[in-house]
Write a structure and sequence with these properties.
This protein has 690 residues and is of the alpha+beta class. The protein is built from nine helices and 38 strands. Strands 3-4-5-2-1-8-9 form a seven-stranded mixed sheet. A hairpin with a 4-residue loop joins strand 36 and strand 37. The protein is globular and about 70 Å long.
């Protein structure tokens, strides 16, 4: 495999200046919020962001956020731009360049529609040469020049058409080159694309636009759970695109004091788990897919290659991808916590490095950070755990070599009272000992908690789809063990009771599994009395309420095809344990508010029930909604706050007892709000930007 290095000189500076002049639009500052930065997507095919990243893309464009889309392949497929269900499509003449062009036309029309413009709105199209030397097609929407699309046009087949190829062999070194296939409306000579050239070109575009947020595909997709042998569930181009993006982001992170936030999205694997988009959200998503497919009924001037991807047919809902938008590394709601000094600290991953922010003094509105770890290779959304005494633990997933993606491990840092990180301690993973590295790369995002003895427990889904854990005993690490159970989503939540006993919850396809420790030092035992509604992809949260009763929070999901619960998708649910530990109600309390995606942050309270807690969530506009007591008769009382965010919000109590809300904005920065008083019903003050 090539070892790629990246050095940039005057060519990049000149290219960067041209980009900034082109997209130099100042957004209106939202009241009390912040100006979002550029959001970039890096995908393999022209429909990937519409299927798997939306509604995130459309929400950003609709809010006036600068959006840059990067499509790596020409996606020419079999060259037949005819509905795949058409019985006569095999007789259609093959035209690879024509089909690739039609897909790009369809994507531009869909982006125009997302911008609220006529689908035929004009774009400025041009061929630009990056500092790397690669010539790529660039287009920006003339009425919205901050909306930009790049097409790298790496072809799926050699230029002579003799053999099929994909990005993955280029990434892993089993093939040393691809050729480009330019679209017919932006003609260019074929170019040779090597692995290092592709990485360098991504670095060029990232450095030119300096996105605050980068969205890309899943680098380690789940295998097909329905097969006994190892069969990946995703398209190889998706996987390779994510891994190329990881390497490019790592190169940028080495030289940046504020690397971008990176989000990774599942693709075909969404079909295994309950859907998470509300009817409104997936209906809107379907409209943009229909435009991309040329099936929206809009007028189409004559073009020899077509106005979209006709292979999709006229019904976007024949694909189950319409119903979900799920991050591969599930956002957490516990990334804000109190250090031993009493100061609050927030933890996130910027680029591929762990970032730490902390209050300058306990309870202060002044913060310091971000301080970036010396180690790199981290994936998003670490788990954060703290006991009553002792250090804070940050448990994360890390790629030990971003150039090969061969090794993925779990491990942790400890954090002292000043926010300083210890050295990284690897905990390996539940499948590390297996000879097939693909198994250990499929490890789930970790959850963690500290028990009453001050020992850390780490939980993660293994290759089998069952829950595994590794724990300390008297400070000494024990081997990985399996908890067994049913096939689980990658959404575990762990917590410790006031008595110091460990609980862990994980969602399956139809309900949540629960294990509980009944005595100090004892094993985790399954609790079969908890039966919940299906959990939407995107996270669980557990908090403790009056009587030290656990309360589980999640969003309602549904399984496409059965229709059950479809209208309730995205609504926040709460299951509160009965006074007798290990017994649960048969139905949840509906806390309302549809359209949101991702976990709900909840601040536990020893004198209240499920609805009378301080809560926060990301809504369908990518802004935050908060609920403070008292609850309304219909559930929580959700109030929107300005400012678009990435991931999910977090809540913690400061040393004065006031609730503090933390988010990472679409500007890539930490923002915090604090209640005015140590009273759960008090309102939050204005945002402080760190």
């Amino acid at each position: 495999m090539e070892i790629c290095t990246s050095e940039r000189g005057d060519e990049l500076t000149s290219f960067t200046e041209r980009i900034r002049r082109m997209a130099g639009r100042t957004l209106e500052q939202p009241e009390e919020g912040w100006e979002p930065g550029t959001v970039m997507s890096i995908v393999a095919h022209p429909d990937d962001d519409l299927y798997f990243l939306n509604p995130g893309i459309s929400v950003a464009i609709g809010a006036g956020v600068p959006v840059v889309g990067v499509v790596l392949t020409s996606a020419e497929g079999d060259g037949r731009n005819v509905d795949t269900n058409d019985p006569g499509r095999n007789e259609t003449p093959v035209d690879h360049a024509g089909y690739a062009t039609a897909r790009q036309v369809g994507l531009r029309r869909a982006y125009a529609r997302m911008a609220g413009l006529p689908v035929a709105s004009p774009w400025k199209q041009e061929l630009v040469t990056l500092a790397s030397g690669l010539a790529v097609a660039r287009a920006h929407l003339e009425a919205r020049p901050e909306v930009v699309l790049y097409f790298f046009n790496a072809a799926h087949r050699e230029i002579d058409g003799k053999r099929r190829t994909s990005l993955l062999p280029l990434y892993d070194g089993t093939m040393d080159r691809l050729f480009t296939m330019a679209a017919l409306d932006t003609p260019a000579d074929p170019q040779l694309v090597t692995r290092c050239l592709l990485v360098a070109s991504l670095v060029d575009v990232i450095e030119a636009h300096r996105p605050a947020v980068i969205r890309t595909m899943d680098p380690d997709p789940e295998h097909d759970w329905g097969r006994e042998d190892f069969v990946v569930s995703d398209h190889a181009d998706h996987t390779a695109t994510a891994r190329f993006a990881i390497e490019a982001v790592s190169a940028v992170s080495r030289t940046s004091s504020a690397p971008p936030v990176v989000e990774y999205y599942r693709a075909y694997a969404n079909r295994y788990w309950p859907a998470n988009l509300s009817p409104r959200s997936h209906d809107e998503k379907a409209q943009y897919l229909a435009t991309y497919a040329g099936a929206d009924g809009e007028p189409k001037p004559e073009l020899p290659y077509g106005h979209g991807d006709y292979q999709l047919g006229t019904d976007p809902y024949r694909s189950s991808h319409m119903y979900s938008m799920a991050e591969r590394y599930v956002p957490r709601s516990t990334w804000l916590t109190r250090l031993p000094s009493g100061a609050l600290a927030a933890f996130a991953v910027l680029g591929d490095r762990l970032a730490v922010w902390h209050e300058s003094a306990p309870g202060s509105d002044r913060w310091q950070g971000p301080h970036l770890s010396a180690e790199s290779g981290f994936m998003p959304h670490p788990a954060v755990a703290a006991g009553r005494t002792g250090p804070v633990h940050v448990v994360a997933m890390r790629r030990t070599d971003v150039r090969t993606s061969a090794e993925v491990e779990l491990g942790h840092f400890t954090v002292d009272g000043t926010g300083r990180l210890s050295g990284w301690q690897s905990l390996a993973g539940p499948d590390t000992a297996h000879f097939d590295r693909r198994r250990q790369r499929e490890v789930g995002a970790p959850a963690a908690t500290v028990d009453g003895d001050g020992d850390l427990w780490v939980f993660a889904r293994g290759f089998s789809g069952r829950m595994a854990f590794r724990r300390q005993a008297g400070g000494e690490w024990q081997p990985w063990e399996s908890l067994g159970g049913i096939l689980l989503q990658d959404v575990a939540a762990a917590a410790t009771t006031e008595d110091g006993l460990v609980r862990v919850f994980a969602a399956g396809k139809h309900s949540v599994m629960h294990w509980r420790q009944q005595k100090h030092g004892g094993p985790l035992e399954p609790d079969d009395s908890l039966k919940t509604a299906p959990v939407a992809s995107g996270g669980l949260h557990v908090a403790f309420t009056a009587g030290d009763r656990a309360c589980l929070f999640f969003r309602r999901g549904f399984r496409p095809g059965d229709g059950v619960g479809k209208d309730e998708t995205g609504r926040v649910q709460a299951y509160r344990e009965h006074a007798v530990p290990g017994t649960w109600p048969g139905r949840s309390r509906d806390l309302g508010d549809t359209d949101g995606v991702g976990p709900v942050a909840v601040l536990g309270r020893s004198d209240a029930g499920a609805a009378d807690l301080v809560m926060a969530q990301r809504d369908g506009s990518w802004t935050v909604r908060v609920s403070v007591p008292p609850a309304s008769p219909d559930g929580a009382s959700w109030r929107p706050l300005p400012g678009m965010i990435s991931g999910g919000p977090a809540l913690a109590a400061d040393v004065t007892g006031r609730a503090v809300l933390a988010v990472i904005g679409l500007d890539g920065r930490l923002h915090v709000r604090r209640q005015s008083e140590a009273d759960p019903s008090s309102r939050f003050g204005p945002w402080t930007t760190v």
